[in-house]
């Protein structure tokens, strides 16, 4: 991996890391489902120029329609509706750490679903590290009092979202074909899922006011741009960097996601349990990638479908 590729990998992960702060800010002005729908419609549109043109889109909507709909349901609709709803009650730093553990959760799901990706002794060590971090993260919210119990429920929702994303990874891996353009799949998955989220949000949450501060729209566009730009960079890197080597940089997601939240959100500050939990989750990710496990996330990365909730968020 060249210095330039390493810089690009870090830059992509840093872009994804900013999403937690951006989502927390925009949720102060708009309801979660409508907000998620608008963001991913914009992100899907921004990726269309990189989607291989009409032939790739025609191939996707023709031969791979079932993969597109399933991936959209699991990786966009379920994953991000849970993510946005959870961030209304969970601190951004906690969300960053838990979402950053998604590669380890994907490894557990793959053990039960994919016969060629069984659990090993070393893989168990990485998962135990990650789960220990999640437990400490939950304890840091003080689940024994009413406010902490609400935040603990939000963390449980985020965990369910990561499981949904892991199954989405497997759907994409099983439906993968040489003719399936990964950027086209990501673009249309976001666009289709975003439309569904917006319709669902308008039905459940009502029509939002659009008279909002200009900074809200700047952050909203930034969130859409983050998804499109980070995915594009990751796709380019996957063409020349081994997946297992590139995946190692994912430890940056929980680390910087938490740091950005503690720095930029006035209502958040670090505590010892959250910091130890973040270190354990990052250690689990590093260990898993150094020994070459997490086959489910490798299959996912081969298609470029990852991020802040697939981390990352």
Feature tags:
76% helix, 313 residues, mainly alpha, 0% strand
Question: What can be said about this structure in brief?
Answer:
With 313 residues, the protein is mainly alpha-helical. It contains 15 helices and no strands. The protein is globular.
Task: Show the helix and strand layout.
Elements: H1 3-17, H2 19-26, H3 32-47, H4 53-63, H5 65-86, H6 92-100, H7 102-113, H8 121-140, H9 146-175, H10 182-205, H11 214-238, H12 243-247, H13 252-264, H14 272-290, H15 295-303
Explain what this protein looks like in three dimensions:
The chain is built from 15 helices and no strands. It is mainly alpha-helical and 313 residues long. It has one domain. α6 (92-100) runs parallel beside α9. The radius of gyration is 18 Å and the shape is globular.
